[in-house]
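Supplementary Methods. Inverse-folding protocol.

Structures were first reduced to a discrete structure-token string of length 264. This string, shown here, constituted the complete conditioning input.
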């Protein structure tokens, strides 16, 4: 009997017409990366009510989807990578355009994340999608995509580690991104997303690359090509926040030192 993952809180699936492939498909393994910022209202907490958030923007804003899986809360690394990727797909940019736009890409991305699990594989594997395939057609948006039964993140791979043991060489970079970084995690998630969706010509955005390290590398290069600017911006934003926090005590000290002494 084929086991299926439980879909936790995926609002989009109620609109889908689902057909299941008759036979299991081969593994689609990829050598395919956290930030400390997690949107609190995405985990069920109330939205902020500050003046900065109270104003309504002139352009429509994509709503934050329901969390597709409990692992996003239980595993902080997976959770932060999820929100990083989500922030890119929700924005209008070349990366979200490559995946068909925000609405379409968010639907498929959340369906992908609903099946994510942690597993143990050789170091060379970053993530692996395997098992039977479900073909999904959303009756409302006419979006067609596929889902693998299992989406496994390798706990021995670059998503979590730079090295396995201190005496061993570091895990190789993927593109320009070092292992165990927020950038490489997002690259890996978007890499897998590319295997699930088709482009305008009817071909998969990224061809199947299981057991083909060279093709997997080329697929990662493609994601870096179309999404690299947005991925690199994640690191820049974190560095700016860190620099701002470090500057605050110094600015406060400077303000105190230059303040006039009180007169009596």
């Amino acid at each position: 009997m084929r086991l299926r993952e439980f879909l936790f809180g995926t609002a989009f699936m109620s609109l889908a017409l689902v057909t299941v492939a008759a036979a299991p498909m081969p593994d689609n393994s990829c050598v395919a990366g956290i930030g400390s910022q997690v949107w609190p209202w995405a985990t069920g907490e109330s939205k902020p009510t500050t003046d900065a958030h109270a104003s309504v923007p002139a352009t429509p804003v994509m709503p934050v989807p329901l969390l597709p899986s409990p692992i996003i809360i239980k595993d902080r690394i997976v959770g932060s990578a999820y929100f990083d990727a989500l922030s890119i797909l929700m924005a209008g940019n070349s990366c979200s355009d490559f995946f068909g736009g925000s609405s379409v890409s968010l639907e498929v991305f959340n369906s992908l994340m609903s099946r994510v699990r942690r597993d143990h594989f050789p170091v060379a594997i970053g993530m692996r999608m395997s098992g039977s395939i479900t073909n999904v057609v959303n009756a409302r948006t006419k979006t067609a995509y596929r889902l693998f039964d299992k989406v496994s993140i390798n706990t021995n791979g670059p998503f979590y580690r730079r090295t396995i043991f201190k005496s061993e060489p570091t895990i190789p970079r993927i593109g320009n991104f070092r292992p165990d970084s927020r950038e490489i995690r997002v690259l890996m998630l978007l890499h897998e997303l590319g295997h699930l969706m088709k482009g305008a010509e009817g071909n998969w955005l990224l061809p199947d690359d299981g057991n083909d390290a060279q093709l997997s590398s080329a697929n990662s290069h493609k994601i870096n090509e179309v999404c690299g600017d947005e991925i690199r911006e994640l690191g820049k934003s974190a560095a700016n926040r860190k620099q701002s926090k470090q500057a605050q005590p110094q600015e406060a000290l400077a303000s105190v030192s230059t303040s006039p002494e009180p007169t009596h």
